[in-house]
Amino acid sequence: MAKGHTIRNSILLFMTACIWGLAFVSQSKGMESMGPFTFNGVRSLLGAAAVLPLVLMQIHREKREGKIAETDRSGKPAGGIKGIKFILAGGLFCGLAFTAGTTLQQIGIIYTTVGKAGFITTLYIIFVPILGIFLKKKVSYVVWIGAVMAAVGLYLLCMEEKFSLKPGDTLIMLCALVFSLHIMIIDHFTPKVAGVYLSCIQLFVCGVVSLIFALLLEAPSLLQLKEGLGSLLYAGIMSCGVGYTLQIVGQKGMHPAIASLILSMESVVATVSAFFAYKLGFLKTDQSMTGRQIAGCAIVLAAVLLVQMPVKHREKSE
User: Is the CB of residue 175 less than 8 Å from the CB of residue 122?
Assistant: First the structure.
């Protein structure tokens, strides 16, 4: 992967982490007026609707460039039924993994603390390189060092109490594993599928599945949607529509272990943004950062910078 593309994709993934980190307040606020399946379903469909114009632009561009009219070895159009099936399969697998991960997280967080849930969720930075071993994706020792550093930093940042496993923590751990699979699925499909296709289908699948469970297990109403409209709009358009599209596009050609490290900056952004929001008067609850949290932020940032620096060595290892 060219150095210019690596820098560009790293920036896209960091932008994703910023959007997700800033969405924390909106997601928490939205859950006050509706159930988790209702919130997930509506915000995902809003995200899919936001990405749809990009999908139409991509189709138009491919038609103009003649890509859809190209033929494969059998003489069939490359963008024909076979291509559509591959795109749909990628979106379906991404969507199911995304739905499972967000559902496990939201249910699990009911039975544990926010700080612990945040730390355990970001353990995908360790799970991704482990999964990469089984999928024959080589990981250099520099990336392993970065992953361990990030895990330590996130522990200092998120954990304020003594670590002990509770029933909800198991669900969050499963959530981290599912998000690791989600990152690997994206890594598998992005070399062959335009990112906007995967993003739109993924969000549509999550929206439909979540709303089915919402109708079965919750009692969604227009009043709930009205009360949580602001949160739904940000979480849907920005966190889902923009954020997950940037993730998919940014991951293309990027080693999944390095991508997961950059995405883990979400926790740092969430903590720092909450601190400034409190200082500026947007949040009433005290969001002051302790020395321990500042150290955690610094370690995570150092880990992300570490895996970006030794480019030549890393390319040989991958």
Answer: no
Across the range 268-287, mean pLDDT stands at 70
159 has a pLDDT exceeding 80:
no
Q: Is the pLDDT of residue 286 over 70?
A: no
Per residue in 175-190, is it b (16+ CB within 10 Å) or e — as a string?
bbbbbbbbbbbbbebb
CB-facing half-sphere around the CA of 298: CA atoms within 13 A: 7
**Best CA proximity match to 124, nearest among 182, 168, 195:** 182
Q: What proportion of the chain, given as a percentage, has pLDDT over 90?
A: 22
pLDDT at 205: 96
Question: How much is the pLDDT for 155?
Answer: 80
pTM of the model: 0.78
Placement of tokens 């923009």 in the chain:
242
Cα 143 from Cα 132, distance rounded (Å): 12
